[in-house]
Design goal:
The chain has 329 residues and is an alpha+beta fold. 50% of the residues lie in helices and 8% in strands. Strands 1-2-5-3-4 form a five-stranded mixed beta sheet. InterPro entries: AraC-type_N, Homeodomain-like_sf, HTH_AraC. This is AraC family transcriptional regulator. Keywords: DNA-binding, Transcription, Transcription regulation.
Length: 329
């Protein structure tokens, strides 16, 4: 299950990475809908679009940002799941646990661990977010997992190979910081490999009692988060089918078979609200239509429920920071 909501962790790491530079916070948060005041919230939740927008802003300043963030994303970034993994008996047990709860990992990929002969391959596939950010997300995901391996083991995990589906980037020399092994580009999958014998190694922080306690918390949190994601996905599905004549909050509440107050409360718990979800869906649809021929701005505005083309232009400028005409390929 891919994340429908996520924490502010990646956003905060991105801001911290640029903290010692002259880059203003407002530039990194531009068009994300995230306010500086939101960063102090302990239970804040944001949408993938918001997180990825901040990452996209950061990428304009540092092309290898995915690798840099991945090297800084330690096991503690994964909350209770991270501590459950740390207290697992063996390295293999920790991996099986993490893969069992993808909703808690908050990843944009389907992660797999497969043993082929003497090698264990960790792969990331089925990416379904913004295509222009796929390389960034692959780099951050796999570099982070390498960092997590070191945290679990208390030592650097020796890699045997790493491969990536995309072409070699101009900064490929920086891959050595995360993948100190032979690296192949234009490969069939995004993955790295290590000797399978490491899966049986006992973890230095293994503790059966702590593990059982944290495992119970993982099960409860996963159930709650999965239910929220399913609920949010249903709301997005309803709104996406009615963009030309979007329902108000009260009508949407009726369609969800709940009261407007209940709907507001649930959305608040998810770190979002009605207008933000509607804008998010409109923005996604607008980008799709702007990339297609035969869709003038006036027709797109009508398709998205705007009464005037000017209103759509102003909204798109607010969402993306550029005019619709400048977004077209």
């Amino acid at each position: 299950m891919h994340a429908q909501v996520t924490t502010l962790h990646v956003v905060s790491m991105t801001l911290e990475y640029f903290a010692d530079t002259a880059v203003p916070v407002s530039r990194l948060l531009e068009a994300s809908g995230i306010q500086p005041a939101d960063l102090s919230g302990n239970n804040s939740r944001i949408t993938p679009h918001q997180e990825l927008q901040v990452c996209a802003n950061g990428l304009t300043l540092r092309e290898d940002l995915g690798l840099e963030l991945g090297q800084r994303m330690h096991i503690s970034a994964y909350g209770i799941l991270g501590y459950a993994a740390l207290s697992s008996a063996t390295f293999g047990d920790a991996w099986r646990l993490m893969l069992e709860y993808p909703a808690l990992l908050g990843t944009y990929f389907k992660l797999d661990l497969n043993v082929e002969g003497e090698l264990a391959w960790v792969s990331a596939s089925n990416y379904q977010q913004r295509p222009e950010l796929e390389v960034f997300n692959v780099e951050m995901c796999l570099a982070s997992l390498r960092t997590v391996c070191a945290d679990l083991l208390g030592q650097v995990l020796p890699l045997s190979a790493a491969q990536f589906r995309y072409s070699e980037p101009t900064y490929s020399n920086r891959y050595a910081n995360s993948f100190d092994c032979p690296v192949r580009f234009d490969a069939p999958s995004n993955a790295f490999a290590f000797p399978a014998s490491w899966l049986t190694k006992r973890l230095p922080l293994a503790d059966a009692i702590t593990h059982q306690d944290t495992l119970m918390c993982c099960r409860k949190l996963n159930s709650e988060l999965s239910a929220r994601q399913i609920w949010l996905a249903r709301i997005r599905e309803l709104l996406a089918g009615q963009l030309a004549d979007s329902p108000g909050l009260e009508q949407l509440a009726q369609q969800m078979h709940c009261s407007p107050r209940t709907l507001r409360r649930h959305l608040q718990a998810l770190g979002t609200h009605y207008q933000e979800l509607l804008d998010d869906l409109r923005f996604e649809r607008a980008k799709d239509l702007l990339c297609q021929e035969g869709w003038p701005v006036g027709r797109i505005a009508e398709e998205l429920g705007f009464s005037e083309s000017a209103s759509f232009r102003h909204a798109f400028q607010r969402w993306s920071g550029i005019a619709p005409s400048h977004f077209r390929p």
